[in-house]
Every structure is written in structure tokens, then in C-alpha cells.
From TrEMBL:
SUPFAM superfamilies for the chain: Staphylococcal nuclease (SSF50199)
Protein's recorded name: TNase-like domain-containing protein
Coiled coil feature spans: none
TNase-like domain span: 11-61
Signal peptide residue numbers: none
């Protein structure tokens, strides 16, 4: 969720619990039309993207597979 949307705080806390004080690896896929980096995120080989999706903190982007 975006800042101000329902679930934003819970998603932020969940994400922080997975990445804080850890080495994060990025598999950069591309930059979107707003010049934002779209990437797959891993900690110790574990997909943080999939963790967020599986726990309903995030939705998969159409056409992006990590």
C-alpha cells in the first residue's frame, strides 16, 4: 500500500522486520516511466517480494516475476 492507504503501516513494519540490519541483494529489472527502479529483493537468498505477497502486504505487479 502507498503512504496513507489502509495497511501501509503494517506493511512497512513487516518489511522492516525482514530487511533491517541485513545485507539486501537486488536483481534490478528496469526503470519505470517515473524513473523508479523495479527490482527483486533478496535477503540470504530469500525473496522478500514473495514474503510480502504471501503475507498479503503487497500485490504482484503484472508482468513482473521474481
Amino acid at each position: 500500500p502507498e503512504r496513507g492507504e489502509h495497511g501501509y503501516l503494517a506493511a512497512t513494519i513487516a518489511l522492516q522486520s525482514q530487511v533491517r540490519s541485513r545485507v539486501v541483494d537486488l536483481d534490478i529489472l528496469y526503470r519505470d516511466k517515473y524513473d523508479r527502479v523495479v527490482a527483486c529483493v533478496y535477503v540470504n537468498g530469500r525473496s522478500i517480494d514473495q514474503f510480502m505477497i504471501d503475507n498479503e502486504y503487497a500485490r504482484a505487479w503484472r508482468g513482473v516475476q521474481c
